[in-house]
């Protein structure tokens, strides 16, 4: 029988030297002193054990029990309990829990007032703030969330100072009858450090014992293990894993038997949702810990079953009596709504944080910062009273931007609906065709090929799943210019603030963003349906804006800039493969220049690693494209943009004037921008950033010059590398340089040049609206009869061999399958190797066809042979006389056609499988999710957790 009224304190320590002096003072300074102290140290390396031994003196029983760091908290409590002298009460303390002088006295007074209370807990307040509430009792929700009933960061104002019955209390300051502790065999060894208090309280309640919280007793708790301030061998770096595993275990071993199947399913689905939630807030580690905890518990059914049998053996109270102490069933849903609101506010908070940082930077450089801030606030209040419409109508720049956007949307009317022509092939009927082309290793195109699908099919397929194939291409062409306008405005505004806190004048931002948005339109790329330069124009300002984050003083923001830049660079590379080698060369030049100027600044890994990581993202995300391109001997695709071949050739003047193809605006529009960029070198205040723009332009010009000397010889055509992206880069660099020069130029000079500069966007917009010609509505037609096209859609083995030309001038051939060559397939076919066997068969058809040759055509999955007008009469005559070929009708009398009267081979186009393709697609999917998570904004809760 334990001695009535006696209290023994049981203190467990582990590397707690930073808190122990205050904790020991609090223990010795109790108004009702403890009768004895038992101390257990679990492998401390900071002298905690010696500190406890020297501070407690005669109170300490048998010295400090020293055990290894792998000893769990339940095991440490068991060791201390075995050494503890006879006493009625055991007071559990952590090495980071500092009791208020009256804590023990208040706990014992509550025990005397309520003799049925067996477990008592204090009010826990945050240490070192001392005022914020942590816990006044604790329970658990049906999803495993630890519930305290407190608001986040709530201050103690006496609002919860009532003694009440709870499910459990924290072991930091728990006062428990020794008989109860021994009856329940202490704490569960399966909960080594976290969650043992909730499990113990649940078991105590089921066994008929009562737990109360005593708010008059106060203990200050640092929560070192939970906040990650202290690592132990039991937690390592995965604190969240241990906490989540403890929560899952506690629910499964204590739940009612009839609700266990539902609980298993609920926790599994809840874990999936929590993983998604953590990924959305860039908490990849916590997401992995969630999965690991679920796998750990669900893979140990024997342990769960044994724990449930042990609890059922001690159960005295009805489950309904315990269930009222648990959290309400609706509480997890409220937490879900809170998370959604936190996530929605994250982007807003981030934008406000950026604005505040810029405002602070401005105030730092402004001697009259306080007065300036007061003026800004006064102006904001004045504008707030006038209304949004009035502000808009009285702002000429806003009106001009709105008019420009409307004009761009009207001018893009040719792209509404289905578009094809020029360099743009028709889209397939279903987005499933794009997904199939992206996922499969062997394509049933032509005579079958292993050339990988172009990388831009993935973003098109993702958007096409929502908008449809026709809608996504139309949206890209229509919205490219407005998106470029928006991105250019953001970029130029930030760049202007690098030069001066006030930034560039709004009229200058309007000129620069308007000029940039027209680059794809005036270059002729839009009119020819060249998606590479069109998408590059829209993406490039956002990419440059993200890359400016590499100059941020905070390492976390530099890393976030790395992932965002990497994703945007990947998107640009998918549509314009030249973007990545250009970015690598530019990155090397910039890092070399930075090393030469500020050598010591690049010694830190957080300075040079983010740009390198951004450059490493595209090869990883685009691995399913470039790796098979090399293995399938289609490396030429690494230098081609989307669209039909051959790609337009560019003269040096076209490169400087920003012209791509024959449908571009007059050359002098682009030349004016180049001249303005050259004049921007004159003003001294902005000369350095303008030189940076010229370095970018020089790197682009060098790349274009080198690539301009290359000719890519493919099976069906010879073409130059696609240089549209480099044209966009050059124009972008010129625009930024001109804006910077205008910002630094004297007012009179800037006003004089403004008249000339205004001709560029005004002239470009007028040309696009009234003069520009497009080839987006060109329908080349087809010499193939409609019934043959319909037959070809029945399967890949119903191919149509189209032979053009004559024996005298030379013959060319192509095999049409399905609904014809669509966007994405044109690039695969262009890069596919020539089928030399079929070439020989075509030669034999034109010279000496035989029935055996017709059978071979059927084995190749060819059902029809077509000679489009004007058909070579000698070839047609020989085919008419060939056994196995039956004359077929054609709409054009000058076109001749035949049907192969032989059984077609079902497996004519079957190709080999590839485990490498599967691996690359899995790597791409996992890497894409990973990088997008790292790009996402951080919620306030995650920020607080990291700071803690």
Summarize the structure.
It is built from 36 helices and 19 strands. It has 948 residues and is an alpha/beta fold.
Description of the structure:
With 948 residues, the protein is an alpha/beta fold. The protein folds into four domains: 7-236, Spore Coat Polysaccharide Biosynthesis Protein SpsA, Chain A; 333-378, no CATH class; 395-426 and 433-461 and 468-771, no CATH class; 786-900, no CATH class. The strands form four sheets. Strands 1, 2, 3, 4, 5, 6, 7, 10, 11 and 12 form a ten-stranded mixed beta sheet that branches. Helix 2 links the parallel strand 2 (36-42) and strand 3. Helix 18 (506-517) packs antiparallel against helix 28 and helix 20 packs across helix 28 (724-744). The model is unreliable at 347-386 and 943-948 (pLDDT under 50).
- Kindly give the count of domains: 4
CA-atom Rg in angstroms: 37 Å
Oligomer class: single chain
Beta-strand residue percentage: 5-15%
Poorly predicted runs:
347-386, 943-948
- Biggest sheet architecture: 10 strands, mixed
Output the structural class: alpha/beta
Net shape: elongated
Number of strands: 19
Distance between the termini: 44 Å
Helix % is 40-55%
Mean pLDDT: 86
Put simply, the count of helices is 36
Task: Give the helix/strand layout.
Layout (H helix, E strand, L loop, with lengths): L6 E7 L6 H9 L7 E7 L5 H9 L8 E3 L5 H11 L5 E6 L2 E3 L3 H11 L3 E10 L6 E3 L3 E2 L5 E2 L16 E2 L9 E3 H6 L12 H11 L3 E12 L17 H16 L5 H21 L3 H15 L2 H14 L4 H5 L7 H35 L3 H18 L1 H6 L2 H16 L19 H9 L17 H43 L6 H12 L1 H4 L8 H17 L7 H21 L3 H19 L7 H17 L1 H9 L20 H6 L9 H13 L7 H22 L3 E2 L4 E2 L4 H21 L2 H25 L14 H7 L6 E8 L3 E7 L8 H7 L4 H12 L3 H9 L2 E6 L5 H8 L4 E4 L7 E5 L14 H21 L4 H8 L1
Helix pairs in contact: 1-2, 7-9, 7-10, 8-9, 12-13, 15-18, 16-17, 17-18, 17-20, 17-28, 18-28, 20-21, 20-28, 21-23, 21-35, 22-23, 22-27, 26-28, 26-29, 27-28
